[in-house]
Amino acid sequence: MRVDFAPLYRSTVGFDRLFNLIDSLGAEQGQPTYPPYNIERTGENDYRISMAVAGFGESDLTIEAKENGLTVKGDKKDDASGKELLYRGIASRAFERRFQLADYVVVKGASLENGLLHIDLVREIPEAMKARQIPIAGGAAKVRQIEAQAA
Question: Which ranges carry the SHSP domain (predicted)?
Answer without folding.
Answer: 28-139
